[in-house]
Write a structure and sequence with these properties.
Peroxidase, domain 1; transport; ATP synthesis; ATP_synth_OSCP/delta_N_sf; proton-transporting ATP synthase activity, rotational mechanism
C-alpha cells in the first residue's frame, strides 16, 4: 500500500514534467542511408526481392533508423509495405523470436557462425515453409542466414516493430519501476500521455522492471525522459553534499 501511494503521488509530477519542454533529450534522430528495399546486400549480387522495381511508388520509413539492425529493419519495412504485409511480417517475426527464446537449441543455431551459410539457408527455408511464413519474411530471413546475421534477428524485429508502430501512429512509452505499476496508476499515466499526444496518435505503454533504480519511476516518452528514480535522486544528493560550502556569504 505504501508503495502504491508513492506511485500515486508521483504520477501528477510525471504529467506536469512531460508537458513541459525542459526535459532531457533521450536520443537524437540521426539521418542515415537505408538499404534498398529488395534486400540486396552491398557485397552480394543476389536479389531476394520478388517485387519489380519499375514504376513503384516510393515508400519512406516513418522513423530514421541507424546501425546495421536499423538498416535491415528499414529495408524489411519498405519491402513489407510494398507487399501490403506489414502486420503479417511483424507477427511472423514476433513468433520467430518467441521460438528462439523457448528453444535453447534453436537459439544456439541462430547464433552459431560456425554453421556453414548453405546449411543455415536450407534450415531457415524449411522452417519458413513449415511455419507458412510470407514470402517477404522468408526471403528476408534467408538473407540474414546467408549473411550470418541471424543472431541479430531479435534486435531487428524490435526495430521493425518500432517502424510499424510509427506507421500506425502509435508512440511507445517505456515506464520503468521496481515493481509492476498498479493498474490505476498505469491508466492515469497512459491517459496523461494520450492527452499530450492529442488525437491521431495512440500511446503504447510498456512496463519495465528494473530493481537497480531502487524506487520511484522513470518514463521514456518519445525523445523526453522523466527520471524520478531514487537512484538518480541519491546521485543528485551526493553531488550536492560533495560541493564545498561557502560560509563567507
Amino acid at each position: 500500500m505504501a508503495m502504491a501511494g508513492r506511485f500515486r503521488s508521483t504520477v501528477p509530477r510525471v504529467a506536469k514534467s512531460l508537458m513541459s519542454d525542459s526535459l532531457s533529450t533521450h536520443r537524437s534522430t540521426v539521418q542515415r542511408s537505408l538499404l534498398c528495399s529488395n534486400f540486396t546486400d552491398p557485397q552480394q549480387s543476389r536479389n531476394f526481392s520478388s517485387a519489380s522495381p519499375s514504376k513503384e511508388p516510393k515508400i519512406k520509413v516513418p522513423v530514421a533508423m541507424f546501425g546495421g539492425s536499423g538498416n535491415y529493419a528499414s529495408a524489411l519495412f519498405i519491402a513489407a509495405a510494398k507487399a501490403k504485409a506489414l502486420d503479417k511480417v511483424e507477427s511472423e517475426l514476433i513468433d520467430l523470436v518467441a521460438a528462439t527464446e523457448k528453444s535453447p537449441t534453436f537459439s544456439q543455431f541462430m547464433k552459431d557462425l560456425a554453421v556453414p551459410a548453405d546449411t543455415r539457408v536450407k534450415a531457415v527455408t524449411e522452417i519458413c515453409d513449415q511455419a507458412k511464413f510470407s514470402e517477404v519474411t522468408k526471403n528476408f530471413l534467408i538473407l540474414l542466414a546467408d549473411n550470418g546475421r541471424l543472431r541479430h534477428v531479435d534486435t531487428i524485429a524490435k526495430r521493425f516493430s518500432d517502424l510499424t508502430m510509427a506507421h500506425r501512429g502509435e508512440i511507445k512509452a517505456i515506464v520503468t519501476t521496481v515493481i509492476p505499476l498498479p493498474a490505476e496508476e498505469e491508466k492515469e499515466l497512459k491517459d496523461t500521455l494520450q492527452e499530450i499526444l492529442g488525437k491521431g496518435k495512440k500511446v503504447n505503454l510498456e512496463q519495465k522492471i528494473d530493481p537497480s533504480i531502487l524506487g520511484g519511476i522513470v518514463v521514456e516518452f518519445g525523445q523526453k525522459v522523466f527520471d524520478a528514480s531514487i537512484k538518480t535522486r541519491a546521485k543528485q544528493m551526493e553531488r550536492f553534499l560533495r560541493n564545498p560550502v561557502n560560509f563567507d556569504v
